[in-house]
Amino acid sequence: MNTEIRALEPQELWNKFADLNAVPRPSKKEERVIAFMKDFGAKLGFETIEDEVGNVIIKKPATPGMEDRVTIVMQSHLDMVHQKNADTDFDFDTQGIEMYVDGDWVRAKGTTLGADNGLGVATIMAILESKTIEHPAIEALFTIDEETGMTGAMGLKGGLLSGGILLNLDTEEDDEIGVGCAGGVDVTATRTYTEEETPEFKTGYTITVKGLQGGHSGMDIHKGLGNANKIMNRLLFDGFENFGLRISEINGGSLRNAIPRESKATVAIDAIHQEVFEAEMEELATTIKTELKTMEPELQIVVEACETPEKMMDLGVQEGLTRAIYAAVNGVYRMSADIPDLVETSNNIARVVVKEGTIKVACLTRSSVESSKIDLANTLRAAFELTGCEVECSGDYPGWAPNMDSSILKVLDGLYEKMNGEKAHVAACHAGLECGILGQNYPEMEMISFGPTIKGAHSPDERASISSAQKYWKFVLEILKHIPKK
Predict the structure, then answer these.
(1) C-beta separation of 232 from 209 below 8 A
(2) Looking at the domain assignment, is residue 426 inside a domain?
(3) Domain range for residue 311?
(4) GO MF terms on file (predicted)?
(5) Are 263 and 250 a contacting pair, CB within 8 Å?
(6) CA distance 421 to 481
(7) Domain containing 35 — which CATH number?
(8) Are residues 383 and 417 in the same domain?
(9) What's the number of domains the chain is made of?
(10) Would you give the DSSP letter of residue 400?
C-alpha cells in the first residue's frame, strides 16, 4: 500500500509519512501513535519520554562539530482531523490512510490526508533516524490532541525541555514564516426541550445540505466558504415563516475546527402545503447556490419526502433556536488593524445537533486579541442565552505574540531569500498553533513556525504539494546547519 508515495523525493520524508499514516491517530485516541513513536525512539537508542498527558519527547545529541549550537526543539502534533466524504466507506479507528499521487499533489481516497501535521512529524522522524544530516542537539516534541483542544501542549510541564529555540513545523504555505497566531475558545450552547407528538395532517421531509468544500476554520475562514449549518438554518427559518415547518431532528457539521460541509434535517409540514413548499425550497436552494457558485460550485441542497417523524420540537424553542443561529456571527468578525490582510477575530458555527429533546450548538471562536475573543464569545453567548440555552466557554487557549527581533527569525528570513531569490512572507496566522501555549511554561524559548504547502486541511480535499515538500526539506536541512551558537 502507498508504494508510489514511498518512491517520491525526498524518500526519507515520504517514507516516514507513509509509516505514520499507517497508524490510526484520531484526536483523543492517540494511544497507538504514542506507542508507535515511543517504539521508534527506543529502536534508535535515544532517550525517549512520555509525559503524564501523552506527549512524546525524543532527544538526539548534536552531530560532530555542532555541539556548540543552541539546542533546538522540533515540534509537531501526532493527531489528525478525521473527515470523510459521505459516500466513503472508511473506519478511522482501524484503517491507515489510503494515499495516491495526483500530479503535483498527494491526496487521500475520500478522507483527510493527515499532512496536517503528519508531514511535520515525518520530517522530525527522518532527521532523528538520519546518520548524515548535520544538526545541533535536538529535543523532538510530539504533542497530542492539538486538533480538539491542544491539551497536549497545555499539559506539557516546564523543565522537561532545555532547548532555546523551537521549530514548529505546522505552517501550510511554504513561502510563509509564522511568528504569531490566534488564540481560541469553545462556545457551546445547550438546552433541553419538550418533544410534541406530530399531528396526523403533517407530512415528513428530509433536507440535506452537502457538497461544500469545508476547510480549516482558522486558515480558511476568510474565503467566504459555505457553512452547512448556516445554510440549513436559512432553509428551516424560511420553511417555518412561510409554511409552519416543524423540526424533528438536525445533524450538522462535525469537528469544531472544521468548516461544516454537510447538514441533514428531518422536518414536518402541513400536507396541504407540499407542492408549494417544494417549489419554495427549490427556489431558495437556487438562490443560495447562485450566491455561493464561485466558492462552492458543488453545493447540493436536496429536499425529499420521507416518513412523517413521530415527534417534533416544542414550537417556542424551535423559534428561538432558529433565530439564535441566524443571529450568531459566523465567519470573520474583525480584521486586524495592525497586520494587513490578517483576520483578527472569527467564529465557526461548527456543530448543530437537535435530537430527542436536546440541543447542542458548538462554536470555535478565534482571535489574536484576547479582549476581542472575549467580546465575540459574549456576543454568541448573549444570542443563545436569550433563547434559554445554557452557554459554556471552555478550552480557552492563548495566542502567540510575534517577536520580530528573534535570532531564529533572522536565520530563516535570510536563508529563505538566499535559497529562493525572494523574501519570505513573515506573518502571524489566524490558526491556533501550540507555540503560544508552550510559551507559557517556556517563556525564554524563541519560536518560529514553517512548513510545506498543504491545501484543504481538515477536509477530504486535503492535499500536500510534492514539489513544495522538496523545497521545504532543503530549507529544513539548511536551517539545521545555521542554528546560532550558544
Answers:
(1) yes
(2) yes
(3) 185-397
(4) metal ion binding; metallodipeptidase activity
(5) yes
(6) 19
(7) 3.40.630.10
(8) no
(9) 2
(10) B
In a domain, 486, yes or no: no
The Cα 380–Cα 397 span in angstroms is 18
Residues 277 and 362 in one domain: yes
Q: Residue written as cell 450552547?
A: 189
Domain boundary among 335, 362, 397: 397
Q: What is the pLDDT of residue 148?
A: 86
62, β-bridge pairs: none
- Of the candidates 461, 470, 348, 466, the residue with the CA atom closest to the CA atom of residue 113: 461
Residues 39-78 pLDDT 10s? 999 999 999 999 999 999 999 999 999 999 999 999 999 9
pLDDT for the residue 1: 56
CA–CA separation, 90 vs 94, rounded Å? 9
What span, in angstroms and rounded, lies between the C-alpha atoms of 143 and 141? 6
C-alpha cell at 383: 444570542
Task: Supply angle C-alpha 361, 320, 335, rounded to 5.
Answer: 55
CA 476/CA 304 separation, integer angstroms: 53
Mean pLDDT of all residues in the chain? 96
The set of catalytic residues is 79, 146
β-pair partners for 252: 263, 352
DSSP one-letter string for 56-117: EEEEEPPPTT-TTBPPEEEEEES-B---B-TT----TTT----EEEETTEEEESSB---HHH
The pLDDT value given to residue 338:
79
| Integer Cα distance of 251 and 395 in angstroms | 23
Same domain, 76 and 199: no
Q: What does the pLDDT read at residue 152?
A: 96
CA distance 280 to 148: 39
pLDDT recorded at residue 340: 84
Residue 145 CB contacts under 8 Å (≥ 6 apart), including other chains: 27, 28, 30, 54, 77, 79, 151, 152
Residues of the chain with pLDDT under 50: none
Of 463, 451, 481, nearest to 172 by C-alpha is 451
Query: Which one-letter amino acid corresponds to residue 448?
Result: I
Q: Are 403 and 179 in contact (CB under 8 A)?
A: yes
